[in-house]
């Protein structure tokens, strides 16, 4: 995972998009989940990171609506 930002499009095009390649990616993600976010360890950090990412994603997605709802000052 040492991909630089400028190399990202080339790296994505080199990935294997056949069903077997996609299955391997899901399997790696499954093992990463249980390695870092498993609740068997009682670790709250993984859950809080997922929650923070969810909140940040939704905040960015609804920024326009939130910006328009700001109260304006009347002088």
TrEMBL record:
Single biological process term from Gene Ontology: proton motive force-driven mitochondrial ATP synthesis
Gene Ontology CC: mitochondrial inner membrane; proton-transporting ATP synthase complex
Any GO MF annotation of the entry: proton-transporting ATP synthase activity, rotational mechanism
Keyword Transmembrane listed: yes
Presence of keyword Nuclease: no
Pfam (any one): WRW
Main location (coarse class): mitochondrion
Keyword line: Acetylation, ATP synthesis, CF(0), Hydrogen ion transport, Ion transport, Membrane, Mitochondrion, Mitochondrion inner membrane, Phosphoprotein, Transmembrane, Transmembrane helix, Transport
Subcellular location: Mitochondrion inner membrane
Membrane topology: Single-pass membrane protein
Family statement drawn from the similarity comment of this UniProt entry: Belongs to the ATPase F chain family.
Subunit structure and binding partners: Component of the ATP synthase complex composed at least of ATP5F1A/subunit alpha, ATP5F1B/subunit beta, ATP5MC1/subunit c (homooctomer), MT-ATP6/subunit a, MT-ATP8/subunit 8, ATP5ME/subunit e, ATP5MF/subunit f, ATP5MG/subunit g, ATP5MK/subunit k, ATP5MJ/subunit j, ATP5F1C/subunit gamma, ATP5F1D/subunit delta, ATP5F1E/subunit epsilon, ATP5PF/subunit F6, ATP5PB/subunit b, ATP5PD/subunit d, ATP5PO/subunit OSCP.
PANTHER family listed in its UniProt record: ATP SYNTHASE F CHAIN, MITOCHONDRIAL-RELATED, ATP SYNTHASE SUBUNIT F, MITOCHONDRIAL
Function in brief: Subunit f, of the mitochondrial membrane ATP synthase complex (F(1)F(0) ATP synthase or Complex V) that produces ATP from ADP in the presence of a proton gradient across the membrane which is generated by electron transport complexes of the respiratory chain. ATP synthase complex consist of a soluble F(1) head domain - the catalytic core - and a membrane F(1) domain - the membrane proton channel. These two domains are linked by a central stalk rotating inside the F(1) region and a stationary peripheral stalk.
Official protein name in the record: ATP synthase F(0) complex subunit f, mitochondrial
């Amino acid at each position: 995972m040492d991909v630089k930002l400028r190399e990202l499009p080339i790296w994505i095009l080199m990935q294997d998009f056949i069903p077997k390649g996609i299955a391997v990616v899901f399997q790696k993600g499954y093992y990463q989940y249980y390695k870092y976010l498993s609740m068997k360890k009682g670790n709250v950090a993984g859950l809080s990171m997922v929650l923070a990412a969810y909140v940040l994603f939704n905040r960015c997605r609804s920024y326009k609506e939130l910006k328009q709802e700001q109260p304006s000052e009347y002088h």
